[in-house]
Amino acid sequence: xxxxxPIGPIDPPIGxxxxxxTRLDRELDSRGVRLSDGEVIAVASKVVSYxxxxxxxxxxxxxxxxxxxxxxEHYGAEPWKTAAVLEEADLLLxxxxxxxxxxxxxxxxxxxxxxxxxxxxxxxxLHPVDPDGEARRIVxxxxxxxxxxxxxxxxxxxxxxxxxxxxxxxxxxxxxxPLRDLxxxxxxxxxxxxxxxVNVADSLAAAAALVMGESA
Length: 216
Description:
Blueprint: H1 20-30, E1 40-44, H2 45-51, E2 55-57, H3 66-75, H4 79-88, E3 91-96, E4 99-104, E5 107-110, E6 123-125, H5 131-145, E7 151-159, E8 166-174, E9 179-181, E10 197-199, H6 200-212
Helix pairs in contact: 3-4
């Protein structure tokens, strides 16, 4: 049975440049939380971004190039944000009514994950660098210091086409099998499944995001 244990709220929040693993270690210890082999630790992507110093002032993009201005005008987007997206996105897919569709860190995401929410006034939070590497660091940290073999996911939120609302998604994964391949297994009538592969990592991320909330 799936059980989600929230560790928080953490007060004060993670500071810019603060090592979130040291803080998480201290919070777990102060709350008397004990971990077991096979548990999965979910960390919000913004926590990782803050720790990496990926919180920057909007004025960073005060000088907007011609390409960014043309794209911003075409899609009705803010020029500074368009310049930021061109710098941050792995791929620009298009846009609609001021919203830019991009591909970043292995997922389709709006505006390359650049987000004003949960950031200081006049600043934005960027997607973390190397989410898989951060998930691996979490796994290694708890194996070395706690002696437990946990899994780890870095959780962000994403939109789903033709659906309202956001869902949790695993930006980074380590220490667990992210997919469960059911192809060839029988369905309830004994017919072999042909295409079904369950995304375990994203399913866990969705459950974790529901507990974390979007303003945490």
